[in-house]
User: Fold these one by one.
Assistant:
Number 1:
Amino acid sequence: MFDKVLIANRGEIALRIIRSCKELDLKTVAVYSEADRDALHVRFADEDVCIGPPQPNLSYLDPKRIIAAAEVTNAGAIHPGYGFLAENADFAEICVSCNIKFIGPTPDQIRSLGDKVRAKELMAKAGLPVIPGSDGIVSTFEEATECAREIGFPVLLKAVAGGGGKGMRICRDIAELERGFHLASTEAANSFGNPDLYLEKLLIKPRHVEMQIIGDSFGNTVHVGERDCSVQRRHQKLLEETPSPVMTAELRKKMGEAAILGAKSVDYQGVGTMEFLVDSELNFYFMEMNTRIQVEHPITEESYEVDLVREQIRIAMGEKLSFKQEELKPKWASIECRINAEDPDKDFRPGPGEITGLHVPGGFGVRIDKAVYTGYTIPPFYDSMIAKLIVRAKTRREAIKKMLCALDEFIVEGVPTTISIHKKILSNPDFVSGKYDISFLENMIEQEKRVGAIKPIKQESERAADSAELVKDNSAPEGN
């Protein structure tokens, strides 16, 4: 169907897509803003086109500039990566109208599943368990109040078009609901151009567990296991792992079947992620669906030994899935740490600037997805993630040790990074034992503030290694 792909993105995901395209003998086109003129994805693509100034709305978020770049280079397909225009139904529709293949689901699927209220309705109709909440949009504070009183506090206000924690507020009483409603609506309008909110019952101490699904145009749909994304700050993921420490073979089967059922109910084609909340009794509830490749997809690739991006492109080319459900079993325990240019000691404040020194770890079972180098200047206009550090090992305990070793070798000079907080997370006894939920990181930070001075990381690592010997290894690929 096409022999050249334009990557409508930047950074490590653009490089990741370029690699898979080359393996499939497809030519690649990189687009870049003036701030990314010296970026690696520009260097390694077959062709490149400057699409505007640094501001995202004038470059990476401008459909007209992306389409113009595709037309001038005769690119037959566009891969959106994640973020930017990846879940923009209007952009996907423009691609279709211009006879350019959008590597992703259909515009209608993006539109219906991207609207979180509509997605919840569709999945409930398909038979998936959903979190109790409003029947649709809560247009006014009064409507939100009525719904909150009906389902009971605490509740969670969420933006209909939201993501990454934007337009989201926890409300424990009427006063917080009133403040949160106006703040969330304003933030949603500024972030997504849509102020609409809906309301859900807030589950106490749940885990955030997502299921990777893939569907082709021949009616075949499979799931590729779960990822535990409960380590978050401000509702944004920081560390992910698979298998989830709470997963059993039975629960994986139930969640996987539910994810496939939901995908098939909308005839979903391409890669996607069904996101669930799992409570302490291992009940799971559909939360939302992402209609794109996820940032954390590498741990699934490492655990299951599949190439998700390559499969995504093959499906867009009209080919069948290259594997069946019964062939998909987790073979490794895998962990991903997002290395962001942020200062954990200053509320994760972004720290753009020049990388004056860089050394990355290596060795068996260690993978780095990055797009930075010594002398590279991190621009202030985009997401602060500069690399993803991924490890895999036979057991979860071994994966934790391997990740701590890799983090010790990971040196970034010139800008602040999240490396130090990752070491603390992986050394924390609750994380080591697998007993954590979505409030884990906030609680850990608050505890550090109360205690005051923190022991050196090396001491923490040694203590965690000792603790690991005392807990049951619950990371075997099948079950606890």
Number 2:
Amino acid sequence: MPHTNFFGLGIAPGILDILKKLKFTVPTPIQQKAIPVAIEGKDIIGVAQTGTGKTLAFGIPLIQRLAQIKGRGLILVPTRELALQVDEALRKVLNHSWIRTAVLIGGASMYNQVSALRRRPRIIVATPGRLIDHLEQRTTNLADVKILVLDEADRMLDMGFAPQIAKILQQVPPERQTMLFSATMPSEIINLARSYMKLPIQVEIAPTGTAAENVIQEVYLVRKDDKPQLLFTLLDQYHGTVLLFARTKRGASRITRGLRSMNHNAAEIHSDRSLSQRREALEGFKCGKYRILVATDIAARGIDVSGIELVINYDLPDDVENYVHRIGRTGRAGMEGRAISFATPEQRNDIRSIERLIRTALPIKRHGDISTTEMERPLVKSVARHFTRRGVSYGPKYRR
């Protein structure tokens, strides 16, 4: 029988009081299943889509067990944004506890990170590349790590972090608890679990490839040159916050310029932006300074913002599994969301691949199903130049 509150999951009274103060009253399905197992110190594989409460699913057991045992916890995540958000969520539950955290991510001051490590944090949240930098410079070691969390493990492998993860795992003591969380279960994840986990208990909330519930999905067939016009019309039709995905960082910048020329408050987030620029864009999107956030897939998993009304796939993803991660940014916490994808007529096979993955037929419309008034057409034509300026194409040679 599902739990209607956090009582009965084995959570310590002090943490229950904090959860109550934070108004976390009803555990999500992944929290209900993962927390009791993890609190017992068992290895666990958690499979659930984005936006299902995975951070607390491993964060609560991590904090509770560190209060009972010696040693540290290490959380590996794929992106800087996700590292900051995981740390923020943990610190809310820690609530001025004596347990300190440190965030080790690229693009941030090494000096400040070394200073944080000297304060002997019990929890380290890190991206693989920056953690290896610290290991090589001997500013930290992993000899006392007792709990290891691999969050968004499939994304880390997609981003090419497999060698770094293997190097890190070689330096973590074998006698430890390992928690692996992933939205999908490709063969690489299964092999990782077999190699580095001890009889892990698998907790699966949704089958691999399951799209987020509460999300209305649509596909518009549109010529590439007509995408700006379709975007213009949709932004006039929907008035809430919009997360827009582009295939390349150059494309994201170009789209952002076009949106600003249309007098939309828009920001961009991708790997060409500095850490401070990415944080400003994300915080501005959260607080309402920017209505539209333009992102590439490399930043998709780090965007944890409630209340996103619409996700627009201006470009279809290169990897069909990223479609699930993209649309999971809307329709969160029981709210209804909408995801609209632009596909050229030549991309019908890509749409079929997505449908096979999510096991759902997508309603397909044509660009002509949504029209622009005669008064708007000259403005759209003018704005479209910002999306295609300098003749830069959307071709695959530009990498994220």
